[in-house]
TrEMBL record:
Highest taxon of the lineage: Bacteria
Signal peptide: 1-22
Keywords: Signal
Native source organism of the sequence: Roseateles asaccharophilus
Name of the protein in its database record: Periplasmic binding family protein
Amino acid sequence: MLKLRSIALAVAAVASSSTALAAPAVNPYDAGTVQIYMSGASALRAAVAGLVLNDVCGGSAANSSTTLYNVAESGSGFTFNGNLWAITCRVTAAGGALVGLPANTPVAFFKSDAGGSAQGVFPVYFGDARPFVDVADLSKCAQTTADRVYTACAPTRNVRPMVGVSDVEPGLFTGINVPADPVDTDDDIYPPAGLSAGQQGELTIKPVVQTVFGIAVNTALYNDMFAKQGLAGRKDFAGNACTTASADEPCVPSIGYAEARSLFAGTEANWRLLSANAAKLDTQVNICRRVAGSGTQAAANAHLMGIPCNSAGVSPATVDFSSSAAPEQISAFTGKTVSGKTLATYLVDNMGGGAGNGPMPSGSTFVFEGPGTGDVVSCLNAAQKAGGYAIGHVSRENVPGSNNWKHVRLEGTFPSRDAAKSGRYDYFFESTVQWKTDYVSGLSAAQQAFIPKLAERMAKADSLARLSSANQNGVAALPDSYAGEFGVGTANEVTFGSRVTRAANSCQPVTAVK
């Protein structure tokens, strides 16, 4: 009996020891850990996460010191649990060399996607603290892989972002593109005209990649567009008759610029431009857009509506334009409406109520302004469930998966990296990384080394090649990121290298430089 008791105690001791050791290899808040705080674009979060995880940390599988918080990676790409996430590791020798750090240096990279691209511009310049995930108490997270992957980490701590990332250059955030969150008082200090030329000059701004955008519709509208355009009479690339399941470009429905502009401006009271289904023509017009300050929305405003590039531009419809049951503003930082509704409840309330199964109201318009891309997808899904139609803005690195939406062609061309980099599809913009020059000069030597090197590495085709195939479809490398002519160079440069540019000016037409 004594022997059995001794064995039991020994087993318990081992179990206790294992539990004690089950902690991340890097404490993000240790004095020796290099902390980096980045805010801004949600559309580029997969590219940023891939750069940190794969290039700097050497990959999760190969580097046992790597820990992920509110983000996970699989063969189909990255998944994010909310808008605040982090990655920690001890950098590999190769990864450290990329960002100017010795091998084995502990690094903690924090990213806030909340509010979109403008949050990678204004707080970076003005020095406003933003919420980032707080992982000091892991009991407040769900551990999905021992020591390595934590999700549902809800606590936050407010920190000034050191560096920002934006789908478009900082100068495009002017007028209707300046953030105006209804509950975030920091937005109140942001000038309606955006940063002046002098203020922008205080930032170091680095163009990094070309981000491809697209127009998305829910499945019901997609199928009815397919029918109205007579696409069943066409052939796919294999010579088979097109169906709504066909992904080949000739089989995908198309929307024209004029049609898109009319719908997003809210001037269409029905769906006659896109559908011939009499049962749905007069159902509520649901516009699934992003909030002011979103880079995706700023790109849509510039490309589709001509704002702020054209003095005769057409204003996009906002929530104030809605005639649906219960429209109200949404806060990007609370993820709820001003009255406290969850976005799921808010969508149902404005699409027929009840359990969300319809019927969709008729004769009205609902403009949903989502804080993130996932919220736009939720809007498209909600319209599908309620038996109606919806149209919205979704960047190309996103794929429908099990959701009820698809990208459509724009003026006959399907959004893709290959179409964009060749100049055949021009709904793309040059994304930037920026930091306040004098602020970063006061950070530690390690942080000063890391930040510009991160931007430099993000622009490389080799970094984009490490993304999942889905994520790769939404980004291209800038023409000046590789030497030689278009279509010449390493395999990755040929795959990702673009021949066209806007020269870091979103209001400039696309020109071929290679």
